[in-house]
Amino acid sequence: MKGFIDCHCHISAEEFDSDIEDVVDNSKKNGLIALVAVAEHAGEFEKIIQLSKRFPGFVFPCLGIHPVQGIHPEEQRGVTFQDLDAALPLIEKYKDQLLAIGEVGLDFTPRIVNSETGKEEQRRVLIRQAEIAKQLDLPLNVHSRSAGRPTIHLLKEQGVQKALLHAFDGKPSVAMEGVKAGYFFSIPPSIIRSQQQKLVQQLPLEHMCLETDSPALGPEKQVRNEPQNIVVAAEYVAKVKGVSLETVMEITKQNALKLFPRLKPFITA
Length: 269
Fold this sequence. Notes:
The chain is α/β, with parallel strands linked by helices. The protein has 9 helices and 10 strands.
């Protein structure tokens, strides 16, 4: 069975440096036809572009600035406009190769941001990236930890038409506001051990995509996640929705093609 699209993964993470060929081969063997590779900071933009060239028609780049900056946990902080300034020339340089702008969003986790000033800086950075996405006619690949409602409200205020809310941790009722706005929500393999299982119950399948967020959010905590684990998320959705695995694969594939129009030339409908 072939036709899964991983709509949000960090294939450029250093955890994959030693065996990236195997990771990609295993993805293909397990039915994946595309990996949507997202960025977190400007320092990995070139690496993502190179991976998309190394695996053409399979790894598709998204460039954007994550609301949390700092590679190591002890140095993590909220994003600033200076972080975005470093990224803008590269987004302009590679704009024709991009599938989306991402990973962007808001993260109001208290240890990351504990002031209204910090939250406002995140909002300004997200608004600027939403403007860029509109100018380039690209969707947004969105992070929204502890900020589900503010993120969806901001996207709507900015007139964002196409967005993927990845690994959404907000209330299902808030997610439904996103559904009404036409947004999609991607489900990771960690759903099997997550508190967000009600989200899968309530979200229409027509607004769901699949993701792995590799190397994070795998079926097992603290174990490196890989794109091949997409089937874990798909099987869970199939079970909750009472449909076949093939149905989940096909509908989520079509949803991904609606969300990311630049995928269409590479994938048979």
